[in-house]
């Protein structure tokens, strides 16, 4: 594999449309196209299509892929994979920095942490916009690593604007987390 990997995201109108296909070419055919030449696709409705250049003919083979990544080299980019963009993406996928490495927590483990935090909030009758996070750390630091707890809180809670000693839940993140949990449990689908 090349060291450069690029996610390709298509709009909903393209991904729902069966008319678009990904075509993998060998290096000679790609060079042929890059020189300004064109490929012609021919075939009848009931026959396999063929691809023609000026002096060669190729047949098509359909392949099913399970990998949603397109791996390619020679991408045109600005040369700036910015640090802020990397950290924003790591935050988006809820990656945790553990011992200097970025990792994704097992969903069951994340669910245990969330359940313990929510249980504590309910038992102590804390308001959702006035949660003393230091109390959560004190009670749960014997069960979970404090750096994981801290990062977990930063994903799902925000510092209270009126009093910095308290945090508020991020409703949309909590709702998304529990929706994901319910879907995983009921239909056995893993979402990324």
UniProtKB/TrEMBL annotation:
Keyword Hydrolase among UniProt keywords: yes
Domain of life: Eukaryota
GO terms for MF: hydrolase activity
GO CC annotations on file: chromatin; chromosome, centromeric region; Ctf18 RFC-like complex
InterPro entries: Dcc1
Keywords, comma-separated and alphabetical: DNA replication, Hydrolase
Identification of the protein by name: Sister chromatid cohesion protein DCC1
Organism listed in the record: Brachionus plicatilis
